[in-house]
Amino acid sequence: MILRQYDPRDETAVWTLHEWAMRAAGTDPDDVPGTDDLRQIGRRYLDGEGDFLVGVDTDEGRDTDDSRDATGADDTDDGRDWPETFDGRLVAMGGLLPSEAGHADERTVAGAAELHRMRVAPPAQGRGYGRELLAALERRAVELGYDLVLATTARRQQAAARFYPTAGYEEVDRSSMGEYELLHFEKRL
Prior knowledge:
alpha+beta; Aminopeptidase; 8-stranded mixed beta sheet; globular
C-alpha cells in the first residue's frame, strides 16, 4: 500500500469505500451523520489545519482479476468490485481535522486533532493497513502541531472499538447518538 494525500480524482472511490466499510461493520451508511465532508475533502480537510490520506494498492504485478477466485467470483465478500482511483485500487483512507471542526456527536478539545473516516476495505482488513494509516495520520498531526489525537467510533463497529486501544488510545468517555452508543478515545503523541 502506498499512502498519499487525497486527490480530487479519488472522490468516487472514497465514497464507495466509505459505504462498503460501513455496511460491512454493521452500520447503514445513510445513518452516519455529517458525511458531506467526504464530498468536500479539499475544502474541509486540505484547505484547513487537517489532512486526508488514501492508501492505494499500486502493485504493478497484480493481475487485474486477482480479486476473483477460481470460479470467477469476486473475493470482496459481497461481490463488490474494489474502488479504483486513478493510480490503483483504494484499500484505506482516513482524515484528520482540528477537533473544533468535528461533528456534534464528538468531543471537542481545544488544540487537539480528531480522526475522521478511518476506513479499510473489508477484504483488506487484518493486514496492517489500518495501523499504517493511523501511524501516518499521527505523524501528520505532530507536523501540524497537535499533541493530542481524538477518535470516536460506534460500539457496534467492533473492529474499530478493539483497534484504537491496541494502538495506544484510551477510552475516555461514552455517549449516545440516536441508536448508536459512541466510544470516545484519545492518545497523547
